Amino acid sequence: MPQITNLRLLFSSAHTSPLFLKPSSLPSSFLLFRPNTTPTLRHPSRFTVFYSYSKKQRNHSRPLNITRRNNSSLRETDRKKGMAMEEAESFGFNRKRAEGRDKNDQPKTLQLKVRKLNPVNTICYVQILGTGMDTQDTSPSVLLFFDKQRFIFNAGEGLQRFCTEHKIKLSKIDHIFLSRVCSETTGGLPGLLLTLAGMGEEGMSVNIWGPSDLKYLVDAMKFFIPNAAMVYTRSFGPPPGSNGVAIPAPRKFTDPIVLIDDEVVKISAILLRPSCSEGSELMKEERTTLNASELGLEERRDEFREPLLPGSSNSEAEVALKPGDISVIYVCELPEIKGKFDPKKAVALGLKPGPKYRELQLGNSVKSDRQNVMVHPSDVLGPSVPGPIVLLVDCPTPSHLQELLSVQSLSSYYADMPGNPVDSCKTVNCIIHLTPAAVINTSDYQKWMTRFGAAQHIMAGHEMKNVEIPILKSSARITARLNYLCPQFFPAPGFWSCQQLGCSASDSRALSEGPVSKLCESISAENLLKFHLRPYAQLGLDRSGIPSSVASSEIIDELISEIPEIVDASQEVTQFWHGDRETKAEMIPMKDNKVMTEEPWLTENAFPICLEDITREDMEIVLLGTGSSQPSKYRNVSSIFINLFSQGSLLFDCGEGTLGQLKRRFGVEGADDAVRGLRCIWISHIHADHHTGLARILALRRDLLKRVPHEPLLVIGPRQLKRFLDAYQRLEDLDMQFLDCRNTTEASWDAFESKKDHSTPGSPVSAENIHNGNAVGLMNPNIDSTLFTKGSRMESYWKRPGSPVDNAAFPILQNLKRVLKEAGLEALISFPVVHCPQAFGVVLKAADRSNSVGKVIPGWKIVYSGDTRPCPELTKASQGATVLIHEATFEDGMVEEAIAKNHSTTKEAIEVGDSAGAYRIILTHFSQRYPKIPVFDETHMHKTCIAFDMMSVNLADLHVLPKVLPYLKLLFKNEMVVDESDDVVTAVSAAS
């Protein structure tokens, strides 16, 4: 513990003069000490502390500012000090640590947490973590909780945000187990690893367990996650089969694999591979009569994808396992509960109270103090109670079900197994089914469930529609409040569609019940539902933690009670969309017969020509994620949905949870339609908060369009992203085409147009091929796909040195141009920005159009900065933009930090838009230190608005956009706090 040599505490308030006290005069409850850290206060909201402490060769002091709530809105000048009071779990996110480098900027290895195990756990339970329950976009997770250990099963998208919302500490997680390796179960893993790597002094890591396909996921993630964060990955089972290595059909991998076996818990894995009966679809796709082990790698890869040859039999066939095919049943067994010690029996056997009692309780025999006999534990202990057993079952397809029904290693857990000795039978207390309803509802699966006797079955598969209980409650509350204030920019969330249609309580309950077996004890899973395992007296279900249903009307009632003037404000905002204004004065918000604000832009009449005769079906910008670095309770990470309505849509960036955000915005079925209509996804740079939701979106689109003729989706991004996608596609086909951002710069487009005009027959893009417009068919046969076989839908290209655009990229560029034209767009142009290597911004330009009288109206222009410092390339690209969407990670008082991290401040972002003549500026990508609304200087906001998650800006509403800003300040007036001593404004996280 550091020595405190010169600690002075200054207590002040509005009613007392400053008072200096010595440390010894303070109650110990006011101070907290941690090794190698400075002291903090248990009650920080009351005091301002000035302290200094000394170490060897170190003696300095620094102030720690702690603020009081105030409704004033003053600019903050020192954010770092205000951040010192954030929750202790994060210890401040450190990007260098997250990148796997130590304080000397050298590579390091993250250490696992070492915990002292407690074999007698007073509390143990399994709990449903309902990630995706309201959106069906990802697998739920399951928490196995012990006093000193935490185990999580599956890490789908949104897990980190879910844990933040429900106060589940990431730093306490010891092991993560995957039931399958695919985007549905692992989408949240990259962000989780990066966050853990940035925690504490040296960073943290966890054990990751999964079937052998885990290797492919790790190989893919290494392109943007430091190896130090993934050194504790452990795979098990047969070797991966993506190379076409065939597994003989009779061979089984269903013997339990013991992963953990200590005094706390034994966790075993039973592998399920899909069964390939004759005539099955899986067999037709994957079976081959050739002995793959005798072929070369490339030949085996081709033959692995060939259909079953006619006349081949099951006995001759060998099953080739594709990556992602294997699923896992996890068996969690707690140690037995020893019987109660009977002191009367011990005395009768000649024992004196003392250490021998303890030895007997530990299972050791001792010699009697008064008799010449040995006393055994069974002589003085009551009968032991078998330890509770929990199974987690993931049976994703009917093909896996056939294997499940034949697994012999589960026979010792069956209650109806004939010939099983009673002593050898293990009683299963709880089974959590991650299996989809389509499989659960089969008669075979239902009968299999009955074999476990009185076990409690919890059905956690996602098949619910329009669930009205949002999992991210804090975000839902913010969205509901914004919707009340301005429904035009903040539409009602999709998960309340059931309520808005007037469904009764019984109807909505029926929607959420899902598959439930009538043959055994089973219930539908609910978010935060627990099944207690210890103490044994509480064995069973616990619903006390399940969040209650919250109707939007309840949230609005609370809002009106808290801010009564919001009623008038909402009515005033609504009037902005009415065209019957007679006087300029009516356009200005009023309060108590006084002008509420005097912002000159409220009466601004300038209107770009490109918006003339614009309709509500032309284009809408939907801000799906507006936070930076990592998701928080209130803001998800970066993603922007460009809705072109009947002409399709695009995505700019695709951070983790993008699919879930789409479903919250448009509803479950509406989001599926949006994914089907995607024309292109554009990724700005390789940082994880901008692309880790991409695989889940692509996988869903592949499944939605599986039986419909379609083309691979265009993905445009930096070259590092291609490496990740190439590696990931060894695990899961994403049905896409990749194009480097460098091939979509202005210079590359010019080179493309020039070469296209001079193309000749035989060149990669001939005039005949251009006329046909078939981009897939334009591939140069001599150009091979990086990792994939002939016929694979993955087609990706590299830009070759020495040319603005290489010949291999021509077909994809031609395809992109055709897709843009079909969507009513003229151009998509990437430009370099100042952030990290290969970071880009993008310009999206609509094609010119004609109005009803034949007048040609120029197309609108949208510019997205990505992550960047202000730079000439961005200013040039933004010239005359209709909308500039610019990152504003930091507030104006943090210029040095913005420069250090290659981000922009609010003022800098606005200045870029002003200098470029942009009509409207939307600020996004706010640091998560601003939980609900960022700090900004309203002086420069004459054409600007602050973005929030789910904010939807229609082109037809752009003229109104800045007028809403003063009302947003009213809605969040209690989210700003100020230290009156030095006029420092600090944004704090208010409890929802």
UniProtKB/TrEMBL annotation:
Name of a matching Pfam family: Lactamase_B_4
A GO term for molecular function: metal ion binding
Residue segments, region Disordered: 68-107
CDD domains: RNaseZ_ELAC1_ELAC2-C-term-like_MBL-fold
Superkingdom in the source lineage: Eukaryota
Keyword Metal-binding: yes
Cellular component per GO, a single term: mitochondrion
Enzyme superclass (EC): hydrolase
Catalytic activity: Endonucleolytic cleavage of RNA, removing extra 3' nucleotides from tRNA precursor, generating 3' termini of tRNAs. A 3'-hydroxy group is left at the tRNA terminus and a 5'-phosphoryl group is left at the trailer molecule
EC number of this enzyme: 3.1.26.11
Biological processes per GO annotation: mitochondrial tRNA 3'-end processing
InterPro entries: RibonucZ/Hydroxyglut_hydro (IPR036866), RNase_Z/BN (IPR013471), RNZ2-like (IPR047151), tRNase_Z_dom (IPR027794)
Coiled coil: none
SUPFAM superfamilies, per database record: Metallo-hydrolase/oxidoreductase
Keywords: Endonuclease, Hydrolase, Metal-binding, Nuclease, tRNA processing, Zinc
Domain tRNase Z endonuclease: residue ranges: 132-188
Subunit field text: Homodimer.
UniProt-recorded name of the protein: ribonuclease Z
Organism encoding this protein: Davidia involucrata
